[in-house]
User: Which sequence fits this backbone?
């Protein structure tokens, strides 16, 4: 079953076609890597799929809901309830301990503090962060901070997690560890994942890879059955 279906996406900025007739589908629980050179439209695609940017043309459907037909308030609510986000870095609140950073979406949605931090703590431990729950971002390594960001993206049990170069600020070994965790934990939670990455080894963890160039999807390949999953 497809959870996210985008058809004929076009995004123009003046004479630049950041997206040039892109079709994308993401299956429920599927992990999709998006690769391509700088400026090829990866971030624009992610933002359009996530309902952050309105395309110049095309449609985006989330499990039967036309994202572009919603009001701004409805789309904001859908983003909060159904989507999780991981960015490159700098997304944690410096004054909050790891556990509360990870629990933030639940706390903002009005969940009781004990239940929210308990669920966040469980995710942090699954991500190898046992013992760091009370540390603030300044007391974490870059890789640890990104794992807290992953916990925060998943804590609300989203249908889709979007990650834009989540390991771009990390060294390659740490980056791979974080990508491996991101894909496996998303899979365990039944969340689909759309991750922009420059690591060509990512096909090892994702179900499918899309290659972009000049605003178009130029190739799609599926991971071999029985890969590293
Ligand atoms: N807000 C914007 N205004 C004007 N041009 C933009 C804007 N955002 C992106 N672009 C242009 O669209 C193209 C695709 O950008 P982007 O999606 O950020 O690519 P990537 O993430 O692959 O590096 C680039 O040519 C970029 O300069
Ligand atoms: Mg980008």
Assistant:
């Amino acid at each position: 079953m497809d959870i996210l279906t985008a058809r004929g996406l076009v995004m123009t900025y003046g004479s630049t076609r950041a997206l040039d007739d892109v079709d994308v589908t993401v299956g429920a629980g599927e992990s999709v890597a998006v690769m391509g050179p700088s400026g090829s439209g990866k971030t624009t695609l992610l933002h359009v799929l996530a309902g952050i940017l309105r395309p110049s043309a095309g449609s985006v459907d989330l499990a039967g809901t036309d994202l572009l037909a919603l009001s701004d308030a409805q789309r904001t609510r859908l983003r909060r309830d159904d989507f999780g986000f991981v960015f490159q870095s700098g997304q944690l609140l410096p004054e909050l301990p790891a556990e509360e950073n990870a629990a933030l979406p639940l706390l903002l949605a009005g969940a009781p503090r004990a239940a929210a931090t308990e669920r966040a703590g469980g995710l942090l431990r699954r991500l190898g962060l046992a013992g760091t729950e009370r540390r603030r971002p300044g007391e974490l390594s870059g890789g640890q901070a990104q794992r807290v960001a992953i916990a925060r993206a998943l804590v609300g049990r989203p249908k889709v997690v979007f990650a834009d170069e989540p390991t771009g600020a990390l060294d390659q070994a740490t980056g791979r560890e974080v990508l491996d965790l991101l894909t496996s934990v998303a899979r365990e939670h039944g969340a689909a994942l759309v991750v922009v990455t420059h690591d060509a080894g990512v096909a090892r963890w994702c179900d499918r890879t899309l290659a972009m160039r000049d605003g178009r999807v130029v190739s799609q390949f599926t991971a071999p059955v029985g890969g590293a999953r």
User: Anything to note?
Assistant: Residues 172-188 form the longest helix (17 residues). The chain has one domain: 2-217. The pocket of adenosine-5'-diphosphate (ligand 1) is lined by residues 13, 16, 18, 36, 38-44 (CB under 6 Å). The beta strands are 2-13, 16-27, 31-35, 57-62, 65-66, 83-86, 160-164, 192-196, 208-213, 216-222.
